[in-house]
Amino acid sequence: MVKVLLTVRSEDKGKRILDAHPQASKEKLSYVIVPDVAKDGAFDEAIKSSPPFDYVLHTASPFHFNVQDPVKDFLDPAIKGTTGILKAIKTYAPTVKRVVITSSFAAIVNSKQHPKVYSEEEWNPVTWEEALDHSNVYRASKTFAEKAAWDFVEKEKPNFDIATVNPPLVFGPIVHYLNSLEALNTSNQRFRNIIQGQMKEQIAPTGTFLWVDVRDVALAHVRAIEVPEAGGQRFFVTGGYFSNKEIVDIIREAHPNFEPKLPPKDSPSDFPADIYGINNKKSLEVLGIKYRSLEQTVSDTVDSLLAVGA
């Protein structure tokens, strides 16, 4: 029997997750509360007090635009949260074979000088000084956290190997038991804004032109556990290119009732003519991922937003 232990930041969040999976008994699915992942020893008790683990998925790291303190809000949770759980596993969980870490395209991208092709070979060259600028801090936090993980394995020689999953913007259906329109994850806010008419006058800049479906990201994490060859690898997981104009056009086609709230059909696209290339071959060949289409993801995402009152 596969047993899964979750770490959550509050009792309420843990109960909501259990309530949403009534088919899973308490023996199969349980949680412990870790209120502050940046705190020294944050994961120690969770790992010490639980049955032996075979695998660990480390997914937690903040992504939002409400930056008050770059170090406290982003850098510490990302870096200390990652090194903290690796230390706890090495010390208290000798049975663990692999740790899969959710990194990001943010740890790959070089916004100052894009390479001809992005792949797992690229690293964001951001410095600590640049990281303190609010506009850089999220990307820096993911970069430093992932580098800290690889450095830990190299220096500490633990009983496990690691793999990282590096997605760009993650779109897809929201989880109704955790999300409301007010608490919507940052990547999906553009969908809410479009269907509520916030882009009727002008389509907002796309920003990053790469995306992936949340369900494909989830599968990549599972495959990174299951596939022996995934150990010691980074995986750039992306479904390809997109623009906000393309999302608008798909919504117009799939949900014509939103037409009065959408920008004109002839609105320009900001998709660049000379965009960088992408190489996600490793995720296809090693993990066996078959990516969903943008059309399916957009339609499913809008349906999920409508279900919570959009």
TrEMBL record:
<feature type="domain" description="NAD-dependent epimerase/dehydratase">
    <location>
        <begin position="29"/>
        <end position="233"/>
    </location>
</feature>
<dbReference type="InterPro" id="IPR036291">
    <property type="entry name" value="NAD(P)-bd_dom_sf"/>
</dbReference>
<dbReference type="InterPro" id="IPR001509">
    <property type="entry name" value="Epimerase_deHydtase"/>
</dbReference>
<keyword id="KW-0560">Oxidoreductase</keyword>
<dbReference type="GO" id="GO:0016616">
    <property type="term" value="F:oxidoreductase activity, acting on the CH-OH group of donors, NAD or NADP as acceptor"/>
</dbReference>
<comment type="similarity">
    <text>Belongs to the NAD(P)-dependent epimerase/dehydratase family. Dihydroflavonol-4-reductase subfamily.</text>
</comment>
<dbReference type="Pfam" id="PF01370">
    <property type="entry name" value="Epimerase"/>
</dbReference>
<dbReference type="InterPro" id="IPR050425">
    <property type="entry name" value="NAD(P)_dehydrat-like"/>
</dbReference>
<protein>
    <recommendedName>
        <fullName>NAD-dependent epimerase/dehydratase domain-containing protein</fullName>
    </recommendedName>
</protein>
